[in-house]
Amino acid sequence: MPDSRSWLARPFTERSTQIFLAVLTLSVLAITLLHVLLPEGHPLHVSTFTVTLLGKYLCYALLAVAVDLVWGYLGILSLGHGAFFALGGYAMGMYLMREIGDRGVYGNPELPDFMVFLNWQELPWFWQGFDMPGFAFLMVLLAPGLLALVFGFLAFRSRVTGVYLSIITQALTFALMLAFFRNEMGFGGNNGLTDFKDILGFDLRTDAVRIALFIASGVALGIGYLLCRGIVGSKLGRLSIACRDAEARTRFLGYRVERVQLFIFVVSAMLAGVAGALYVPQVGIINPGEFSPLFSIEVVVWVALGGRATLYGAVLGALIVNYAKTVFTGIMPDAWLFALGGLFVLVTVLLPKGIAGLFAQRGWGSRSQSSAAKTEPPSESASGSRPIEEATA
What we know:
393 residues, single chain
């Protein structure tokens, strides 16, 4: 009989989700208490810098989960999710710039400093409303969501798939990067948006706000993970796996594959936008460099390292790679990209299923081994019949 539990409540019964949420909650709680309760001289004290760094890692982890949703469960290798991440970041950055008011260098209560410097006379129409936090937070979701909706509708309707779709997504983020570099676009040009002071009326430089942003990043990661687990565990998720493994057969059975692809692609883009919005106030800047295709490719490496089609593997990959990047760039900054490429090759050869594959072999995964096996990306010889049967059950 089909499972009658709510699609959003089902993840709470999975062992992998229970362990993930427990580890995430305990980690966020422990870091918060070590920062707040222990004095700075204590060996276990977590500094404000470390809290901010870990908050950035959590934002990257949420972005990796978004990429794993479309790559691992839908089979779409997106090389443009950095664009959705950056758009969410710019939406938050525009709000933070409007929060500065007349405290900028030039003292203009309406125009950001870079607009005054470039002799802009009035605020552009697309900046209107960003002085209201509710509108700004809504745009964090709508800006990447609408872009994904339009792009996905055109691409999936035209049945662009495989490497061609990957190239188009990469071209999209590269085009946006070039556009945002232009001063006349009204987004700060090469320098981007920076010198933020407040968020929701609270000083961004205070320890309390830094901790609050860190906790918010952890909560967003937990909610995003639960949302994705709910989707992939539902009938829609089983149908997306069928589209991944046997798209032609799924169409033949009468399913509108492009609608499934479009919905999951838009949800993934919105999650990436939320990650970008939480990232910006913690790092203090957003510039066109976040649109770089290299960044989007790096996100794919995180997911591949952790293990795609697992979600928790994407989180592991994001945390491990970014921690290694922090350490390695402090020692040999010019050699980091070579180290990242070598790591990717080693994992591909020695751990084709990523780090999560090791946990699955030891029974760490979901409640039933069969349910985990059903979501694994297919091998070259897979026939694709099993996902169709599961989707139509």
